[in-house]
Inverse folding.
């Protein structure tokens, strides 16, 4: 099984075009959508290397599928993963206007890009922010009934876009009237999808991260990121040590169906590479 991860894949007119994460996300049309929902400030760089991460996860999926196929058929395969296509495949939520209307999406009319009052970001009095993250009817009712403005419920449970704009303006004004801490207190115990927008430091110091062992320390006190894959029957055993370069090469080469001379030639060529 051989898997490659490249910017644009092994075929097509862009195959030789150099690019890293930001360029592939830009080419995929996603940076154009990544803007502030309050005013057009231009495209914004996404906070994590999404193309790098998505392509690595798809590479793992592809390798596992190829291994399963080999197990049943005895045949290997070449897995061609493109960072660009990894991002494209993650964008079906915004493709309706493109596929159905032959036009680019109008962001502020789209549910997940600022056109929905319940999927939006609001500034607080202390210049921090609250995110609303769910537009199910019960969440809409809990929010607007709790705020004393049930007149917005009908519009906000309807399609994204112009019908939401009055509610969005009201919520912007309401959230700016109180601090983040005050809103956190108000939301506590209410059945509403929301979160304060935390700094990375706040997140990694949170009780939930600690409880889920997403941050842990080795014997020397060094911090490490835990695994997000939690097995019930076989929990992950963290091991921060890394093998030395070439440490396992001889064992791997010994398992290949090669003559002794071929194995020796491979090991010699690799030694030269390690020295360089």
């Amino acid at each position: 099984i051989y898997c490659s991860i490249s910017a644009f894949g092994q075929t097509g007119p862009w195959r030789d075009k150099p690019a890293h994460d930001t360029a592939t996300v830009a080419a995929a049309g996603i940076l154009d959508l990544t803007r502030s929902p309050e005013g057009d400030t231009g495209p914004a760089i996404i906070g994590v290397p999404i193309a790098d991460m998505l392509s690595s996860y798809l590479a793992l999926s592809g390798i596992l599928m190829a291994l399963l196929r080999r197990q049943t058929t005895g045949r290997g395969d070449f897995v061609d993963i493109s960072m660009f296509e990894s991002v494209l495949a993650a964008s079906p939520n915004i493709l309706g206007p493109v596929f159905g209307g032959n036009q680019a999406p109008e962001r502020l009319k789209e549910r997940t890009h600022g056109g929905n009052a319940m999927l939006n970001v609001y500034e607080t009095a202390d210049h921090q922010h609250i995110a609303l993250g769910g537009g199910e009817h019960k969440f809409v009712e809990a929010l607007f009934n709790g705020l004393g403005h049930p007149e917005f419920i009908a519009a906000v449970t309807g399609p994204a876009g112009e019908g939401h704009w009055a509610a969005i303006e009201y919520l912007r004004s309401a959230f700016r009237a109180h601090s983040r801490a005050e809103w956190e207190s108000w939301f506590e115990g209410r059945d509403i999808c929301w979160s304060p927008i935390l700094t990375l430091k706040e997140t990694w110091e949170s009780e939930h991260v600690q409880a889920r062992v997403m941050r842990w320390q080795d014997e020397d006190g060094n911090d490490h990121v835990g695994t997000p894959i939690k097995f019930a029957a076989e929990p992950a055993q963290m091991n921060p040590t890394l093998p030395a370069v070439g440490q396992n090469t001889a064992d791997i080469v010994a398992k290949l169906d090669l003559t002794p001379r071929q194995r020796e030639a491979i090991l010699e060529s690799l030694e030269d590479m390690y020295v360089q």
User: Anything to note?
Assistant: Residues 50-73 form the longest helix (24 residues). The chain has three domains: 2-105, 109-197, 243-276. Residues 23 and 62 are 23 Å apart (CA to CA).
